[in-house]
Amino acid sequence: MAHRVDxxxxxxxxxxxxxxxxxxxxxxxxRYTRNEFCLESKSTIGVEFAxxxxxxxxxxxxxxxxxTAGQERYRAITSAYYRGAVGAILVYDITKRxxxxxxxxxxxxxxxxxxxxxxxxxxxxxxxxxxLRAVSEQDGQALAEKEGLSFLETSALDATNIQKAFQxxxxxxYHIVSKKALAAQEAKANASIPxxxxxxxxxxxxxxxxxxxxxx
Amino acid sequence: xxxxxxxxxxxxxxKESLDSRINQTLENVQGLLKxxxxxxxxxxxxxxxxxxxxGLQEQSPTYQRSVSHSDAGTSDDMDKSLEGGVRxxxxxxxxxxxxxxxxxxxxxxxxxxEVQSSEMGTRATDSARVTKFSRELSGQTVILKRLRExxxxxxxxxxxxxxxxxxxxxxxxSDLGIRDMHHxxxxxxxxxxxxxxxxxxxxxxxxADEISMLRQISLDCPRTVSDVAFFQQAQVQKSLKxxxxxxxxxxxxxxxxxxxxxxxxxxxxxxxxxxxxxxxDSWSMSDMPSEKISDIEADCYWFLxxxxxxxxxxxxxxxPGIQRLVFKLKELVSFICLSxxxxxxxLPEPVYRHMENQGLEYLQFAFCWFNCLFIxxxxxxxxxxxxxxxLAEGDAxxxxxxxxxxxxxxxxxTLASFVLxxxxxxxx
Lengths: 216, 428
Prior knowledge:
The structure holds 2 protein chains of 2 kinds. By secondary structure, chain A is of the alpha/beta class.
C-alpha cells in the first residue's frame, strides 16, 4: 500500500527555480525534497527536477520543482521549462551583490517566457553567511515590495526558511487555483448543476498522505 | 532512409531465421543514422561477425576487429587530413606516423618494466594487449589505423599519455598546426604566451564580458568532478582556470559553457600519469616541477581544443549540435524498442512505454550526457577507459555518442523492466 501514497495528490504544481549561477538553487531543491545539502555540488547542466508532496490547507499538493542551469548559455534550453509553471522562486546569493542586481534580468526573462499569472517569490539564499553579507535584508525586502513579490531570506545549508519558502509559494498558488475552481463551480452551479462531488475524497486522501514516508 | 519500408519488409520476413532478422535490424539502424561514417560500426559489425563470418569484411585479415564498409570513407577523410609527420602509403588503410615523434620519455623499455605494476586495471592490461600495443608502438612507424583499433578496446593506463597524444596529434590536429611531437613543444610555448596575454592581466584591461566569463569559470572550477579530491588542489584549480579561460577567449562563438570544465579532467588525469604514480586520490601537485605543470596544462589545452573542434555547435547559442544528437538518440531508442526485433524489444519496452506515458523528454536527461560526455554518469576511474574509445573514434565521435548513450539507456530500461516484471509477478 505504502508505495501508492506518493501518487495520491489532488493538485500538481510546477515550480521553477531560477537565478544566477552558484546562488544555491540545486541545494535549495535537494534540501527541500531530500533534506540533503552538498557543499561540493556540481553545476546544473540543462534542467533537473524533483518532487515532494505536501499538505496545503488540507489538500495533498504535489510540487514538481524544476531546477535550471544558471548560466546565460542555457537560457535557450531552460526557457522552454517555464511552460506550465505556476510558480517561480527567484534566488540570489546574499554574499554576491551581482546576483541581486541581476534579479531584474530574471524578472524580464520571466515576463517574456512564463505565464503572466505565475506566482513569484524572491529568496535571498546563504543567510548562514551573514558575516559575508553584501545585500542587506532591507534591500531585498524593498525590491520585493517594489516588484510585488513575496520575499524570504533562506539558507539551504542550515535549512532556514526552505520549507517556509515552498509552503508560502505553494499556498499562494493554491489560493489562486482554488479561487479559479470556485469560480468555475459557481458558473456550474448557475447552470443548476450541484458541484459538491469533489469534497468527498478529501478526508481519505489527506489521511493516506500523512503516512507517506518515501519522500522524506 | 525509408524506415517504414524497411520495417514493412521485416514483417514479411518474420518466419525467417533469427540471424537474418538481426542483420536486417542492424542494417535498418545503420540506415536510420545514415552519415558520412557509421558511428556504430563496431557494435553493429561485431554482432554481424558472429553470425556471418563472411559478412561485411573487406579489410585485411590481420585486423583484430572487423570494420564495416563505411569505414573506407572515414579513412579516406582521415588521409586527407594527415600531413607532415604522418605518411600515407598507397594502401589507404595504412596511415603511418614516423615513430621518432614519440615522446622520448615513453620508451618501450619503460613500458615493459611497468607491465607488472600492480595498480593497472585488468582488462586493458592483460599481457596479450600490452604486447600488441608494445609491438604497435615499437616499430619504425606507427600504423595509426591499427593503433586506433587497439585503443578502441582500451589502452593500458601507463600507455595512455603516449597513445592519446598519438591519436589526437597524428591524425587530426593538423588543422591546429600540430604535426608532430616537436611541433607540440612549440605549441606549448604558444599556449603559455596566450595565458600571459589573456589571463595574467589586470582586471582593468578586461572587458565586462571577459570579467563575467572569468567569474563563471572561477565559480565552476571548484565544482569540477568534485568527488575526486585531487581536482580541488590549489594548483589544479589554477591550471583549470588558465586552460578554460584561454579556451573561452579563443573560442568566442561559444565562450565558456558550464560542463566544459569537466572535459579537461580526463586529459589532466592521463597526462599526469607520466609523472605521478598511484591512484588519483593520492596525487599531489606539489610533487611536480613547475615547468612540467605548464607543459601538461598546455597539452590539456590543445587536446581540449582538438576534442571540441568537432563539436563547436554543441556549445554555441541554443546548443544545436546537442539538440540534434538528443533527437537522434530518441529516434534510435524508439526504433529499437518498437521494432519487431523481439530480443531487444522484449525487455526495455515496458519502461520505454512508461517514459512515453509520463511525457519524459530526452532533452531532460540526455542533454547533460552529451554536454559533459558522460563524465558525470560514471565513476571517474572509468572515464579514461571510455575516453580511449572516444579518442579512437576521432571525428566520428559525436554520432558515436548516440550509440553509447542508446545502449546505456536500453540497458537501464532493460534492468528496470526486469525489476518491474519481478515486482508485478510478486504481487499477482
